[in-house]
Amino acid sequence: MSSGVERPISAIKAKPYRSETNEPGPAVLSAILAGSPDPIWCWRIDGIITQWNPAAERLLGFEASEIVGHSLLDLVTQADRSVAENIIDRVSAGESVGPFETVRVGKKGRALSLEITAVPLRDQNGLIVGGASFCRDTSERKSAAEFLSRTVRELGTLFHLTERLQAARTAQEVYEAALEAITEALACERASILLFDPASVMRFVAWRGISEQYRKTVEGHSPWTPETTDAVPIFVADIRDSNEPDALKKVIEGEGIRGLAFIPLLRDGHVIGKFMTYYRSPHQFSEGETRLASTIARQLSLSLDRIMTEEQLRESELRFRLMSEHAPVMIWISDSAGKCLHLNRLLRDFWGVEEAGIADFDWSSTIHPDDAAAVRVQVGTAIAQRVPIELKGRYRSASGTYRVLETVAHPRIGASGEFLGMIGVNVDVTEREEAEAERRRTQEELQVTNVALRENEERLRLATANADVGFWDVDEVNQVLHWPPLVKAMFGIAPDTPVSMLDFYSGLHPEDRDAVSAAYAAAADPDMRALYDVEYRTIGKEDGRIRWVAAKGRGVFDAEGRCLRVTGTAIDITARKADEAKLKELNETLERRISEVLAERKVLADIVEGTDAFVQVVDLEFRWLAINKAAANEFEKIFGVRPQAGACMLDLLTHLPAEREALRAVWARALSGEEFTEIAALGERERRHYEMKYNTLRNSKGEQIGAYQFVYDVSERIREHERLARAKEQLRQGQKMEAMGQLTGGVAHDFNNLLTPIVGALDALQRRGVGGEREQRLIAGAMQSADRAKTLVQRLLAFARRQPLQARATQVGDLIHGMGELIASTSGPQVKVSVEIEQDLPAAKVDENQLEMALLNLAVNARDAMPDGGTLRITADAQHIDAKHGTDLKPGRYVRISVADSGIGMDESVKARAIEPFFSTKGIGKGTGLGLSMAHGLASQLGGALTIQSRPGLGTNIEIWLPSTDEPVAPENQQTASVPPVGALGTALLVDDEPLVRAAAADMLMDLGYAVLEAGSAEEAIRLIGGGVKPQLLITDHLMTGMNGTDLARLVRSELPGTLVLVVSGYAESEGVAPDLPRLVKPFGINDLAAKLASLSSGR
Predict the structure, then answer these.
(1) Domains of the chain, with CATH numbers?
(2) What CA–CA distance (Å, rounded) separates 255 from 1078?
(3) Would the pTM count as exceeding 0.70?
(4) Structure confidence by residue, pLDDT tens digits, 672-685
(5) What is the pLDDT of residues 844-877, one digit of tens each?
(6) DSSP readout, 409-436?
(7) Strands 190-196 and 128-137, bridge-based pairing
(8) pLDDT of residue 472
């Protein structure tokens, strides 16, 4: 229904309002309306407004006094009038209408998008007296939706354009893609692309909707020249309002053009052409249109640069082939396997190969047989290591004669760093002088070609890496900075103001200065040569504005590695940063689900991008929401299948049930809300250890929607911990054995000093036949006990690794065979003895007596371990130890002696103490506990090792590892041990600080025919010699208070060159005895002393 009065909203004026008796109470309505945050107005059934709350005043701009009393129809457009009348009628009939979206006209004619609900109002008797409208402003939401829709369309256009440009292989394909994108994005039917020709005249190269007459008329017109470096887009809303010449305006309008845009196309910072769009009517370009047009133009510029660069590369390749075909040297190109791809004419003629047959030609078949092996090795090494190569060889020519060719070749590396093969030159140097000149000239040509190719590749890389419009260059040699006006503007500097590196550093925001400076230094560093890729803020030098800049660049270095310059691009991304902030703020007001999805994606992006670990994100159904490349690669490496987002890990591992259950169990913990870290070993092909951290993934409401995992490969760390533990255990064992060795060695030394006079005295009593038969039996028993004590001391010394060894090259196999009968008789009839010696067994450097004693002790231990009989197997073979052997033995050749029994064996606790001295499981009186200790000490002292392998009930295998030697095996030294006849052999000077030892030794010397002078210290002996004593023999103990025996012996040798010298050693002090000094080990008898003196006299 209508009020009967239709007036424009601008004609509404305030007028008094007279209330009707059938309307609701105004006090109640006023209280409700005034307190509502939403716009509300009330009206009578004839559509006349009766109430207008403050929220409605704010939204539509009318005060209550201006609008009350006017019809609702005054607030609607003419197009919506009939709809509004229908709503008034429906509400007056008692129907609630809405919510519905409509447009209402506010004050000053402003149209607003509103969501309205209209309900009937009744009086106290239930009669409908009018209606009430409840309103919400939807303008901002519609604007946001329109903006998002427009953005999606623009991104779709740019994505489609990018795809077409990437696929384009010709300039015409690039032009067509760009024209389609610009006309679609800017809703214009006409556009064109113009480029400068070689004469710097702007020419049409592609167009849509432009007549030939128009093109001929305006061709050559341009607001820029090829030298322009600060060109910016020009947008003309109406050609009539522009400053162009009237004649040009007339031509443009004659083509039906009123609005147009000039967008520069840039290459290396200079204008190469322009992109034009045309509109039939005046057109006010929005900020979005200008930005989108500039973006399309930049993509067009980059694609044109790529096409031009590719054309230049093709021309370069053609020039290379032409040069190669007419070059006076032999040029070839190979693939990554060394197979020929190209042979120039001269080389084809040399080998007699047709160009069509290059693919099947094997150049290596022409190498002279004497040179073939060396050439193949050198070429194979160069290809494998991707390094240059220089070599010479003889090759068979087509005539059948061999010619000497000198080859220089270099690796070919693709733009992505892949190895393509080799390129090389063969020079016939049979006639050295002529060939040398040809080689130098060819190398220079190749070097120029390579430099040009590298420069082109670098320009192409920079051009495609960043769609920038600002180029910069730093001359590092002269420290000169080159900035075009566009880059100066990014730092708030006027175009004509000179700049230096100080302006660059001082213009950086303090919070970004350190990071940017470090990135630039890395790019200019000859060792790092890093890509300069940064985003930073600047503070304008002249205007103080803060801007965002994205910059990329690389250093250029000479052959010596010196940085000549750093060059690159910069782009002002302030608007982009602002847009990102605005978009973020807008996104926060969008619908709940969009917010959740964006939040989830942001969480995932932060997780994936914030770590270099393996990252997996899984939902509650065990499906991957995301998995980074490193995690996918490692998963495929371990399980043999490649995961991807959306796939279920349980379905992917059905072929590995054990692994599937393990993954299900651990992820079930994480998906139940548990956050934990564990280390596990995974993989069938290669077992590796991983540290896995599980965390809960929640949405914006805090609800769990899955879990994510960070995984680090800690295999090396685990191995290092194990190696450290083994090293600590070895150190502990070494320290324990060293301490026990020092203890036992010290005891043995003192014991030897005690034994020496005992053995000497008993020996003298035996020789002199003192007493009767009973006394002689007692003396013999005492001598036997002394010998057993001597043997015990030798075992202690062997364990302590302090037994003086008489090591020499020995055929171990012969030694073992020689002991066969002794071992068999010692083992008894219940033990079967088997000896197996490897043929051609190398010699080992050992002390034969000590080794025999060690083997005999091991055989006795084996016999005792087989109380019911068994098998004793003794073997010897040669072994080679390398660094991967897993033992402490040094790499080299060894002789391994194995003594294995089938006895009761040892458990781990017994085996751990087996080499400890005096440790025995045989019971009291059945062993000294030194057998294994002595064998272990002997092996260690000889540079080898002793290993034990044993299991209870299965027997024991003891292995002695001895270093082998190439020294010849010396024949056994047959020495008589009989006492020489007593005679006047001269004076012997005897020096020892132990009186009993000295007395026993003096008695032996006198029995051997020497006149003996005794001294209790080295200093006393020196005084005797200084007093005129000139002994024919000096026998001195080594370890004494004051000067030791070694120093005394050297002094006597220098003072009395003809004097025989013999050093007596208890044990450890033999390590300090010089190897050139003869020595005698305590305890000793007269036969030992006589034999030693006889050897000294014979070797005089």
Answers:
(1) 9-137 (3.30.450.20), 145-311 (3.30.450.40), 327-462 (3.30.450.20), 466-579 (3.30.450.20), 591-713 (3.30.450.20), 805-965 (3.30.565.10), 986-1098 (3.40.50.2300)
(2) 120
(3) no
(4) 999 998 887 766 55
(5) 988 887 888 888 888 888 888 898 899 999 999 9
(6) EEEEE-TTS-EEEEEEEEEE-SSHHHHH
(7) unpaired
(8) 93
